[in-house]
């Protein structure tokens, strides 16, 4: 396999205002590419987005990105994608929670904004590729097809949130930070050497469009409070809540159940029913999942035609687990070698063959290990 690209390209560098995207743009320019920086304005009211430690979507971030582009010596523009972001990411996020699912807005942003809306516009304007600060690698396989692989530094690998990219998108993607084993401290040191003021800017972790980090309050403000029951596995009412959307599968804290479990052990959220507005809780063992069905599969290359053995990642910062998976009638059927926990409908499952990303899909249903578990 060989890493790509091998020739100078016209590159549009997505500059969020953080240190990673700034260094990625600088490396692309240093490699001889004709680079233009662009910051995506994702809110009609940027003041409402989280500031200070984001490196993502605020006015402060836009200014940081512009200063970085000036230091690198590349043209810089701000593109307004607020309407697209609201429709494809924010409204999708709200709708998924309302339906009792747990979405990943960063993954959806990569799919719909950075590598759909942005890439489509870049290609229409004559650019060859979009460059971002993600930690991942694009390589050319022995058959000449492009593949997405984990970053050389597993501690920083972000291939999970890029698992939605298809081969056509990968053909126009550059990830300058993923090819070398580089720690975040080394990236910051490089930024300082380059004179980039974002060198010590804190990383972004929270959801950019929830300014105060209060996801439940954000959802309540848009969906309204709706009191419902918290019940155990037998259906016994244990307490009430102000909206089933405020819970996620596997949640332990914030249940506010006055009655202790018979065995004295903690209870966890096992199921969320938006139809009845009911939250079901139970023991940790009832969270064990042995299989799942996922929908809307997207393949980073040729789609598998039969069952295969892979490793699966179920959350952005989670580990891998062995699994067998098979596409069936437009869905993905997965069986795990060992039970896994913290699996919720709406999350993404990403399959790997070694370091290669095979593809991803959205979890629709799960099969629990405990007989009678929901």
UniProtKB/TrEMBL annotation:
Tree of life domain: Bacteria
Domain tRNA-specific 2-thiouridylase MnmA-like C-terminal, residue spans: 291-363
Region spans: Interaction with tRNA: 156-158
One GO process term, biological-process aspect: tRNA wobble position uridine thiolation
Catalytic activity reported: S-sulfanyl-L-cysteinyl-[protein] + uridine(34) in tRNA + AH2 + ATP = 2-thiouridine(34) in tRNA + L-cysteinyl-[protein] + A + AMP + diphosphate + H(+)
Ubl conjugation found in the keyword field: no
Major location (coarse): cytoplasm
Protein residues bound to ATP: 14-21, 40, 133
Domain tRNA-specific 2-thiouridylase MnmA-like central stretches: 217-282
GO cellular component, one term: cytoplasm
Family annotation (HAMAP family): tRNA_thiouridyl_MnmA
Role noted for this protein: Catalyzes the 2-thiolation of uridine at the wobble position (U34) of tRNA, leading to the formation of s(2)U34.
Homology family: Belongs to the MnmA/TRMU family.
Protein name: tRNA-specific 2-thiouridylase MnmA
Species this protein is from: Streptomyces monashensis
Higher taxonomy: Bacteria, Bacillati, Actinomycetota, Actinomycetes, Kitasatosporales
């Amino acid at each position: 396999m060989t890493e790509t690209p091998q020739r100078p390209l016209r590159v549009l560098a997505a500059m969020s205002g953080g240190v990673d995207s700034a260094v990625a743009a600088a490396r692309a320019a240093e490699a001889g590419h004709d680079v233009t920086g662009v910051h995506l304005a994702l809110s009609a009211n940027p003041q409402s987005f989280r500031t200070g430690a984001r490196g993502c979507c605020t006015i402060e971030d836009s200014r940081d990105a512009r200063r970085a582009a000036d230091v690198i010596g590349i043209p810089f523009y701000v593109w307004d994608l607020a309407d697209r972001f609201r429709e494809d990411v924010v409204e999708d996020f709200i709708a998924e929670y309302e339906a009792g699912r747990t979405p990943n807005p960063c993954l959806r942003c990569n799919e719909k904004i950075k590598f759909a809306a942005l890439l489509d516009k870049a290609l229409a304007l004559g650019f060859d590729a979009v460059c971002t600060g993600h930690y991942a690698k694009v390589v050319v396989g022995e058959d000449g097809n492009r593949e997405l692989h984990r970053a050389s530094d597993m501690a920083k690998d972000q291939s999970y949130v890029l698992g939605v990219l298809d081969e056509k998108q990968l053909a126009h993607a550059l990830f300058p930070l993923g090819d070398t084993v580089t720690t975040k401290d080394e990236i910051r040191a490089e930024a300082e050497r380059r004179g980039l003021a974002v060198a010590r800017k804190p990383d972004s972790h929270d959801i950019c469009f929830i300014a105060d980090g209060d996801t439940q309050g954000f959802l309540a403000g848009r969906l309204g409070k709706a009191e419902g029951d918290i019940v155990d596995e037998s259906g016994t009412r244990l307490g009430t809540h102000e909206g089933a959307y405020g819970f996620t599968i596997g949640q332990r804290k914030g249940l506010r159940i006055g009655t202790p479990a018979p065995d004295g052990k903690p209870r966890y959220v096992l199921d969320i029913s938006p139809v009845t507005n009911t939250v079901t809780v139970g023991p940790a063992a009832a969270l064990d999942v042995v299989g799942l069905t996922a929908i809307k599969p997207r393949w980073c290359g040729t789609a598998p035609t039969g069952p295969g053995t892979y490793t699966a990642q179920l959350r952005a910062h989670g580990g891998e687990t062995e699994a067998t998976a098979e596409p069936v009638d437009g869905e993905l059927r997965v069986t795990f070698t060992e039970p896994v926990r913290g699996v919720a409908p709406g999350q993404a499952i990403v399959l790997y063959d070694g370091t290669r990303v095979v593809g991803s899909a959205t979890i629709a249903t799960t099969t629990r290990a405990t007989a009678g578990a929901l």
